[in-house]
Amino acid sequence: MSNRALAFTTKSLLQILKSFPAVSRYFVGFSGGADSTALVHALSKIQEQLDAPVSAVHVNHGIHPHADQWQSGCENFCHQHNIDLVCIKIDLTHSSGKGLEAEARHLRYEAIAALFKPGDCLLTAHHADDQAETLLLNLMRGSGVDGLSAMPDSRPLGAGILQRPLLKFKNSALLDYLGENNIEWTEDPSNLYLNHDRNFIRHQVIPSLEQRWPQVSQRLLLTREAMTDARNLLEKLADEYLKPNLSHPLVLRITPECLGSPELFKLVTRRWMKQSGATGFPVYQLDSFCDQVRQADKDNKILARWDNWILRCYKNQLWLNIGLEITPCPAVKWPKGQKALDLGNDVGELLLTDVTPVDGLTKEGSNIFPDGKFSVGGRINMNENVIGQGDIHKSLKNLFQSADIPPWLRDSVPLCKLDGELVALGDWCLNEKFAASLAENGISLNWRPKHPLLQFILKQQHRLKH
After folding, report:
1. How far is 382 from 62, CA to CA, in rounded Å?
2. To the nearest 10°, the Cα dihedral for 400, 402, 403, 404?
3. Among candidate residues 376, 272, 398, the one with its CA nearest the CA of residue 328
4. Section 71-93 average pLDDT
5. pLDDT value at position 356?
6. How would you classify residue 98: left for phi > 0, otherwise alpha for psi between -120 and 50, otherwise beta?
7. Per-domain residue ranges for the chain?
8. Residue 276 in contact with residue 249, Cβ under 8 Å?
9. From the candidate CATH numbers 3.40.50.360, 2.120.10.10, 3.40.710.10, 1.20.59.20, the one assigned to the domain spanning 224-322
10. For the whole prediction, is pTM greater than 0.85?
């Protein structure tokens, strides 16, 4: 194992950036510290040779009393080196429960991603020593192969991508570059606070390990490379499972094969959630969720919450949702003659449309409107619980169950009443007399939900109906 660190030069940076996928614009994260200063300076020397314009972006967290002075220093540096600079101020709310470091990092990336247009790229100055620290941190957190693969060269960020071009270089190589070019930088005193986990790893753990095993950072990076290879193989295996079993980006079918193997279950669940954009599912919660799903019967309703995500299981399907619970359908009267009824951001709208196209386009319903008092509501505010279809009366409960609609979505399905009688469930199950009346007048009832999971169940019902 060589003790010689790879030298950081503008030529090597240009070669790395050319090897990455093409982008439309570069933003480079600039804190004013040594690492980002070296990256911004090197980019200023090669920006004419790049295929995309370069701007720096500085995020002012307002934590340190000198934060505004650091921002001014970044502004002066970029002005001197002909680099455009975008400055963003963020307010740390301390409400995430993840600690100051994690909250600052999350808000920093969120603020930068808000600047992005498709094809934009954020360059960060993470280097080889950061990689080794990240691997050790993740090891202490009990991470699997994903965590032990540490930081990838690139990953999606908002509408664009994040790229890390310095992962092959040690911090010492960046400091050598700054010294050779007589460049000064700002040292954040918080980088020495040992109450921060990463600083403790950097200043206490790795130096102690170096005394016993010289070049320990390079040794850790070999482990990282092995874990990356393992992760790639496991992701390929998971993708082979997901391809035929992903009913919807937010709905995953669990096969007997998957139920019989907790390792496969957890592997495909993690991969699926990662592809769906879900933040990391805590390992202990995933273990518990897996055990509950494998031991429960198919009708049990199993739920896990973390961050802003909700994962449920119903009838051997996993359902993923972000944010608040899906809103129920409101109880409203449908005004006489009104062709569309707004039911909110999740439920969407109900429409009466003419089934006879005009010039190839579907137009709004005619002036003929259902006679009587027409209203809409959700299951939660319905007294009636059966729909008459000829001589047969079907209960809402049985209709929802036979349609495989999960219980937590049922309150969001619009139900129509005419003169107090339940005549429609969504737009696929209609009272026989009501359906005949609509057909006689050339009118069609159509539900257009806005939430993706409601769109999915509607599509499923239409597919079964036809």
Report:
1. 52
2. 90
3. 376
4. 91
5. 65
6. alpha
7. 10-212, 224-322, 332-465
8. yes
9. 1.20.59.20
10. no
